Amino acid sequence: xxxxxxxxxxxxxxxxxxxxxxxxxxxxxxxxxxxxxxxxxxxxxxxxxxxxxxxxxxxxxxxxxxxxxxxxxxxxxxxxxxxxxxxxxxxxxxxxxxxxxxxxxxxxxxxxxxxxxxxxxxxxxxxxxxxxxxxxxxxxxxxxxxxxxxxxxxxxxxxxxxxxxxxxxxxxxxxxxxxxxxxxxxxxxxxxxxxxxxxxxxxxxxxxxxxxxxxxxxxxxxxxxxxxxxxxxxxxxxxxxxxxxxxxxxxxxxxxxxxxxxxxxxxxxxxxxxxxxxxxxxxxxxxxxxxxxxxxxxxxxxxxxxxxxxxxxxxxxxxxxxxxxxxxxxxxxxxxxxxxxxxxxxxxxxxxxxxxxxxxxxxxxxxxxxxxxxxxxxxxxxxxxxxxxxxxxxxxxxxxxxxxxxxxxxxxxxxxxxxxxxxxxxxxxxxxxxxxxxxxxxxxxxxxxxxxxxxxxxxxxxxxxxxxxxxxxxxxxxxxxxxxxxxxxxxxxxxxxxxxxxxxxxxxxxxxxxxxxxxxxxxxxxxxxxxxxxxxxxxxxxxxxxxxxxxxxxxxxxxxxxxxxxxxxxxxxxxxxxxxxxxxxxxxxxxxxxxxxxxxxxxxxxxxxxxxxxxxxxxxxxxxxxxxxxxxxxxxxxxxxxx
Length: 643
Hints:
There is one protein chain. The protein is of the alpha/beta class. The strands form 3 sheets. It has a 9-stranded mixed beta sheet with strand order 14-15-16-13-9-12-11-10-17. An 8-stranded parallel barrel has the order 1-2-3-4-5-6-7-8, surrounded by 7 helices. Strands 19-20-21-18-22-25-24-23 form an 8-stranded mixed beta sheet, with helices on both faces. The protein has 2 domains: 10-275, Divalent-metal-dependent TIM barrel enzymes (TIM Barrel, Alpha-Beta Barrel); 287-421 and 438-638, 2,3-Dihydroxybiphenyl 1,2-Dioxygenase, domain 1 (Roll). 49% of the residues are buried. Mean pLDDT is 92; it is low at 427-438 and 637-643. A hairpin with a 2-residue loop joins strand 19 and strand 20. Catalyzes the conversion of 3-dehydroshikimate to protocatechuate (3,4-dihydroxybenzoate), a common intermediate of quinate and shikimate degradation pathways.
């Protein structure tokens, strides 16, 4: 679609946010919305008049874009019809006090409703005539569970029949897409007869549409509905009114209102730009891979972690020129251990203990990426730098983790030469093990898994999707011994072994699962799993087991089951069992991987080999990994479950 400088007003329904009505209005204004939909229940529970709401909104610079919903109006038997028109007059009084000229009438769900489009059109025409006398308008919307009207074409037919200038159509992406209704015909409608547009996304769920709507809607870009296709059709009609968010979501209504409002505005900016409108967004970055991970440590944790890294084949490759920071390397992987006092890493350590405090992505254009992120209301970060030290631009992820952006146009390896004293070879007397003597070196970081507080996955999905253009994959449910973990990965386009970025995101309602324990024990979200890519897992693990690397002992029963699931020969099965390697395959290829135990019960490492075009993460083996880690954590002796 050709770009347009036209910028839509952006609105959010008060039902989408948590808190009292004044708190919702304050959050919407603080984040930058132009207007709000006043949801009837929020007004009913407000200790004040509609005029008071109007004054609060005006003081915050908010327009009240619509009052909603007016339910069960059209095509009712005569005695009820008269009462409904009286109800409408009373709502018109409320609208005038609120200072809005538009009311949303949703299609009737009552069993008594008459299946007669002509009667529905006549009733709505009468309501519109009364509204027009008072300078007001009526918008008619098809509910996905409406008694007789549940498609936008049916609603439009009724509006068209009524033929009244104060009556128009309201379209909602959820009500259209939840029924797999085709939105393309909306493009052929006259744009001035569409009075209002509501946007909502949702995960793909198999359940009745009413329950789906009431509990699981989310913002555009967070779900799996084709919201962009819906919006393209709407905008092709010539509609230029507000774009508004109407979200019913149990988790959103329990979250801080400003966080939810920020996600909402970000989603509208993103979807508007994708449709070719607004000021536009710089193109998403091309992410070539993970340049480094930075760990927040103190001196004791640094020594302990460096020993673990040494057993995995990393060597001490450099020391920062002016800070208490060390570089460890193997193949294409750079790990930074930061024990500098009075730094962002130190603050992170005080809150979370030994932890990943920063990730660095190599991108094609760091400045463009920062500009895109800031346009999407993300927070950039400037770390204190010393003399001659390279300043690397950075963003804050939703959990506060820093994401550094290493510019691929520059000689990005020079960040190490600029900032570090690099060692030509391992210093004499260093206790860590040397690089693998005959194992396969690491290609890069394959994926980085993050544990999130329950209810926050949608926020992270939107962040990575909008800022970096990552593609969300299907949701997995992983059985931990103490509950269920839900996992969804975000993957950069064209990711391949050792290149690109893969970010599995994990949540759990249970505090006892591996994910739940990480979040509760370390004061919030963070990286809890780092997977290194190798071209030969057999050679690498063989070499590192000899060096004492703490790979997890895998139960013999796993390999007995593996022989049944996959057509593996005896030699391959014996190799996997001997190396403690786990195995998976899909239609594209095979996957070999091995895990370490957790470091201080916080994060752990994995080595992975992707063969062919395997695109997944070995999720089928996650239950084995979590069970073994739980047994080791609880002090079970390995010999109880090994040969």
